Amino acid sequence: MRVMATRSLLFTRGEEEVKIKHHEIKDVPDWVAETMLFKLAQKDNTIQVIENKLQQKEAENSKPATNKKPATKESPAEEK
Q1: How far is Cα 34 from Cα 39, in angstroms, rounded to an integer?
Q2: Which has the higher per-residue pLDDT, 77 or 66?
Q3: Planar angle of CA 18, 30, 58, nearest 5 degrees
Q4: pLDDT at res. 61
Q5: Which of 17, 16, 35, 65 is CA-nearest to residue 47?
Q6: What whole-number distance in Å separates Cα of residue 66 and Cα of residue 68?
Q7: What is the four-CA torsion angle of 62, 19, 1, 53, rounded to 10 degrees?
Q8: Spatial distance between the Cα atoms of 11 and 68, rounded to a whole number of angstroms
Q9: Residue 23: exposed, middle, or buried by beta-carbon count in 10 A (0-12, 13-18, 19+)?
Q10: Structure confidence at residue 67 (pLDDT)
């Protein structure tokens, strides 16, 4: 199952762990969908299941750009 998460999440089952980083698209084992964390994250849209290429493109395009610098506002003195 392929998923995309808007937050970093850690799913556990016994000794097994699956980590998903912030805005990462990742293939995870099917047991992850059975965890309470997954169900809660899906309910509040923190995680979404990607079932086809169109959904993957939409998820990739909704990722925030990580290399953009924040816009700085010029002070009134610099505008002159």
Answers
A1: 7
A2: 77
A3: 80
A4: 80
A5: 35
A6: 6
A7: 20
A8: 31
A9: middle
A10: 47
| Residue boundaries of the structural domains of the chain | 2-61
pLDDT digits (tens, 9 = 90+) for 11-68: 999 999 999 999 999 999 999 999 999 999 999 999 999 988 888 888 778 765 544 4
Which tokens in the block code for residue 74? 């010029």
What does the block give as tokens for 63?
A: 């990722």
Contact 32, 5 (CB under 8 A): no
The answer to whether 1 touches 28, Cβ cutoff 8 Å, is yes
- DSSP alpha helix (H) spans, 1-80: 36-43, 53-61, 76-79
Instruction: Give the C-alpha separation, 77 to 56, whole Å.
Output: 46
